[in-house]
Amino acid sequence: MTPSAEKMYPSRLAIKKDASRASLYDRVRYYLPTILIFVAVLVGAEVFVRGLGITKFILPAPSAILQAFVETFGQLLNRGMYTGSEALGGFALGCTLGILVALATARWTAARETLLPLAIAANSVPIIAFAPIMNNWFGVTNQFSKMAIVAIITFFPMMINMTRGLTLVEPSALELMRSYAVSEWTVLREVRIPNSLPYMFNAFKICSTLALIGAVVGEFFGGTRDALGVYITQEAALSRFENSWAAIIVACVMGIAFYLLIVAVERLVIPWHASVRKTEE
Amino acid sequence: MSVVSITSVNKTFKSGANQTFALQDINLQIEQGEFVSLIGPSGCGKSTLLRIIGDLIAPTSGTVLVNGKPAPQARVNREYGIVFQAPVLFDWRSVEKNVQLPLEIMGASPQERAERAHAMLSLVELDGFQKHYPYQLSGGMQQRVSIARALSFNPPLLLMDEPFGALDEITREHLNAELLNIWRRTQTTIVFVTHSIPEAVFLSTRVVVMSARPGRITQIIPIDLPQPRNFDTRELPRYYELITRVREGLRGSESLQSNEE
After folding, report:
1. What is the CATH number of the domain that holds A125?
2. How many domains does chain A have?
3. How far apart are CA A238 and CA A247, in angstroms?
């Protein structure tokens, strides 16, 4: 999603009042429907599974998943850290490279016009299909093989978004800078980079989700038993589906936590942007 | 020495095989302390002429001198401030930081920057808004910040490209009066592009009437309304006479154009 799309569809809470100043009552009231639906789905699943006597090979009851989660929590935590570190490492690598290439292409129009269509094409490819190749290149038990796939998956959205942020600058802002007779470098520092920050945070959000998908799915193609993805497939193969489900919950929680962390940093770094800023009352 | 001296300026834009004569044989002298408006139908090249004076674009032929120097040299010397139709404020900078931008670029000390920004924001009647961000201001206030920024480094020439074109009539009249105050106090020479006849007459010492396709100057009308001008100026019979003269000048430039076609 582009920043302009966020401008068009701000969250209800952002319109109503600044979230950080909203009272506890307002917050509870805002999130209550979401929480209720979540609980209703869980209860519904429990009733559905028990009522129809569905075997746990097909769908374990939420209570069974919870039990498995509690019993295996220690190992789940370790496996989550293992896979999370792959996601984080790959994310850092892919995003850094994406930002650097975007900075280079923003400076040289020729490079941008050559690389951007390629990047957009590459971004539409199911890059996860390269996971077995990465396992082959870097070793199936080497964590770097998963970081590599995550790095490739996150590189393209970051590069594309960042390039747009650096180049989609108001023409009159460039005229203003020209009137001051400044160097291209000053234009980059004063206009292009600040302008790109909302695009960069959007890419971070997209990439945070992609990073976890990349790491877990990469592990489906092989790895050590310390990995969440390997654990999910092996437990499923042994028909211990409640364990697989418990591991999936860990992956979900990590994904959401990663996303929220980025949103929090975004609020600190670009408080002036439309998607974040506090509405005057 | 004229502040702006334009001699035989032509500008053609080429797109493929087509050539557009944006400006043809423009000659204009603007003296120190003048307030000159460029007015004409859209496509008459008034904004193009303003950009040529500021060396944001180059003329196809002819010479432009600003304070006796070629326009590119004057730009490098930072001898003019510019205000666009959009305020072009940077969202990530507070109001005072936006006003300080040119001073930062020119290497002024933090103390000098703060003092100048403070003085300029008082000049445009925005005291107390230093720490606000652009999105917290109305369109008219944003444009005043833009004017404060253009004046912050005390340029001898101010170029304004339809600065109040996007504002409502009430705000526009208020800012017109405010701009005249600023002009009197700073004694800056102003070149002002507009498509509003009353605005041009109220503000200017001279109105330059232009025609479209090709863009050329058809008339230069001196505005002899008494200074200082204020809200009463708009009640004077002479004000309406001059509005009629400019309007007829614009109509004349239209018929001139239709004769040619």
Report:
1. 1.10.3720.10
2. 1
3. 14
Nearest CA to CA, how far is B247 from chain A (Å)? Answer: 30
In this prediction, residue A2 carries a pLDDT of 41
The residue among B92, B142, B193 with the most chain A CBs within 10 A of its CB, best to mutate, is: B92
Contact B243/A at CB under 8 A = no
Tell me whether residue A145 is in a domain.
yes
Question: Hey, is the C-beta of A73 within 8 angstroms of any chain B C-beta?
Answer: no
Q: Which of B88, B105, B136 sits opposite A180 (nearest CB)?
A: B105
Measured distance CA(B157)–CA(B161) in Å, rounded: 13
Residue A101 lies in a domain: yes
pLDDT digits (tens, 9 = 90+) for B157-200: 999 999 988 888 888 888 898 899 889 988 899 999 998 999 99
How close, in Å, is residue B256 to chain A by CA atoms?
Answer: 33
Q: Per-residue pLDDT for A279 more than 80?
A: no
Domain-embedded: residue A281: no
Query: CA B84 to CA B164: how far, in whole Å?
Result: 9
pLDDT recorded at residue A3:
43
Among the listed residues B133, B128, B95, the one whose alpha carbon sits nearest the alpha carbon of residue A271? B133
Q: What is the extent of the structural domain holding A123?
A: 3-269
What per-residue confidence (pLDDT) applies to A277?
66
What domains can you pick out in chain B, each with its CATH number? 4-79+156-260 (3.40.50.300), 89-154 (no CATH)
